[in-house]
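User: Predict the full complex structure for these chains.
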Amino acid sequence: MLARQFDALVDEAESGIAFDGLHVARASDGGYTFGTPDHEATGLSEAELHAHADGSPYVTNWYFWEREVQRHDSPRRAFLRRAEAAADHDPGERYEALREGLVTEWGHLRIEATVDPDDGARRYDVRHVDDADHAVADLEAHDDPLDAREIAKYDDDGMYRPLKPATNTPTGWVFPDLDWRDAVETVELFLPATVANWYREQRGELDVDHWTDTMERQTGIYGVVEELPREAVEWVAEAACDDSQCTKRREWQYSADDELAADGGAGVYPCREPCSLVVAAGRKWTKLEEEEPREYTFHLTPSEKEQVEGIVEAVADDRVDEIREADVYEDANRYRTRYLRAKLFDDHGNLGGVPTDPEAHHDAEAHDGDGDSHGDHDADNHDGDHDDHDE
Amino acid sequence: MSQALVIVAHGSHLNPGSSAPTYEHADTIRAAGAFDEVRTGYWKEEPSLREVLRTVEADEVYVVPMFISEGYFTEQVIPRELRLDGWDVADWDSDGLSADVATYVAEDTGQTVHYCGPVGTHESMTDVLIRRAESVTEDPHVGEGFGFAVVGHGTERNENSAKAIEYHAERVRETGRFDEVQALYMDEEPEVDDVTDFFESEDVVVVPLFISDGFHTQEDIPEDMGLTDDYRTGYDVPAAVDGHRIWYAGAVGTEALMADVVLERAAEAGADVSSAIEAVRETTRVAPGADD
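Assistant: Here is the predicted structure of the two-chain assembly.
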C-alpha cells in the first residue's frame, strides 16, 4: 500500500467506505472501523488502521477502482471489471488469480490481467487468441494503443480489412504491458464501439435497429436496399453475419416482430444493426435480385456438376488458398478448374458456349451481367464528399 | 465540463488510405491536448457515424466533418446517423460556403453536439492549399514564377463543391503570391485535362481539393493531366508536360496543417482550443522557414 493510498483511505473514512467487501468508517469518537469479509476491527487509531490496511488487497483494490478507474456506470469500468471477473470473486480471491494472470476473451482478442499486489495497479496483456502460447519475444510488441489501428487494418495476407470485427484479425502482435486506460483504448481501436454496445446490452438498453429500420433510413444510392425481398435478407445474414465471418453476435432481425431463421452467432458483443458493409453488399444483392431467372441448358458430367458445387463451397468457405497445387482430388484445385474452363467455356467465357443473354450472341459484354461493376464501387473509390445519392 | 472532438469522414470499404488523413489529424490534435477525448467516426468504417458518439464519455462534443463541401453528406447523412434531434439545415444559415455551427442533443446519448461546417469551406483551408504547395515544392517561399491550380470535381454531382473550389482559388489569387491561379475541374470546363492551356508560367502547382488520396487523386487526375500513361507506374514531381513543369501535390487533405482547420472549426463552435491552435500551426510546418 502506498502512502497516498492510505491518505486517501483516511480521507474517505470520514464519509465511510463500502466497496468490494471493504468496510471502513470513522465513529463519532474518532475511532476507525476496518472490515473485510474475513475480519473486522473497531475503535482503531490511525496507526492501527494503517496496520490493518497495509498489505490488504481490499484497500489497494478499493483505491484502484474508486480513485483511478472511477466513472461508475461507464462502459470502460464495466469492461475492466469483466476482465477480472470482479462480479464473481472478492478481492482476496481475485488477487490470487491475478497474480497468475486472469484471461478473458473479447472476439479474437485475448486479454490477460495481472496485478501488482503492493499497490493494486493492474497491467494488461492484449494479443490475438491464437497467440496465447507465444512468448512476448516471439511476437511484435507494441505499447501505443494507436498502433492497434494499423494492425487491425490488414489481415495476415496483407489485405485491407474493411470490417474490424471480421474473423480475419491478424496475428503475431502483442501489447504486453498496458495500464488500464491503454488497455481499454487498445480494445476500442481493434473493435470500435463493441464495449459501448456490450455495456448497453448488459443494462438492457441496447438500441437495436432491425433490417427494415436501417434500410428505411437509407437515402441516395442505398435507398433501393429496402426493396430486397424478405427471403433474401435471410441469405444476407447467413452469408455475411455468420460466426465464421464476423465476431459480433447479430441481434438485429428482419423487423422487431419478424425474426430471421439464420443463426445470430455466439459472439460476446452484440451487433445492433446491419453494418455499412452489409448495406453496401445489400445494394448489390438488391440489384441482382431484380433479375428474373432464365432457363439455361448445360451439359455436365455428374462430376462436373459436383465440381462446380465444390468450387462455390471452397470460395464461400475461403478454402481456396489451402488447396495444394497437386491435390487434383479437390474440386477447386487450380489445375482441375483450369481444365474445366478449357473444356466448357467458349472464347467469350460462356459456360457450355451458352450466351448469358440469348439476344447478344457471343457478345463479350453480355457476360458482364449488369455492366456497372465499376459504378458500384464509386462511393468507395472516390475521395471526399461524393454525392452518392444521385447515380 | 469535459469536451470531446469527433472528426467524421467518409472512409472506404476498398481503399485503406481513405481514413489515413483523418487519423493523422486526429492524432495531431490529440497530442496538442486541447480535448479530453479525440475520436474519429466513418460512414464506411468503424466506429460508424451511428455509434461514434457512444464511444465518447464527454457530455460536450464538437463534431467536425472531414468533407470538402456542404451537401448530401454534411446536410443529410451525418446529422441523420448522429441522431441530431431537430436538425434543420436552415440552422446553419449557409449560402453553401458559410456553414459554421449548429447545436443539438444527440437522441441516443443525450450529449450536446456542436455540429460544425465541413473543413473544406473554412477560410483557413486556403492556408492549407498554399502549405501544400510549399510541401510539394519543398520551398517555403514558393510563389513567384509559379502558377497554382485548385482542382475539384465540378458541379455534376454537387453545386457547392464547385463553389468551394472557386472560393479558395479566389482567396489564393488575392494573396498575390502566385503569378496565376486557376480553378479546374474533373468533369466540366475548365478541365484539368487541359491544365497546361491555362497557364503561362512554366511551373504549375496542382492541388486537388480532396480529403484523401484515392481513385480520383491517384489515378484519374495524374492520367488526365498526362503526368503518366498508367498511374501504376507512378509519376515524377515535377513532371514535364507540354513544356511546363507540373508539381502535382495529391489530395490537400493529407497536408498536416489540415489539423489546424479542424481546430478552427471547433474553436469557432465554442471549444476552448486556442493554445492548441498555436501548437498545431507550429508542429505541422513541413517546409522549413515558412511564414504563414
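Chain A touches chain B at residues 71, 74, 76, 146, 149, 153-154, 160, 162-165, 188, 192-193, 196-197, 200, 207, 209, 217, 219-220, 272-273, 275-277, 280, 377, 379-390 (CB under 8 Å).
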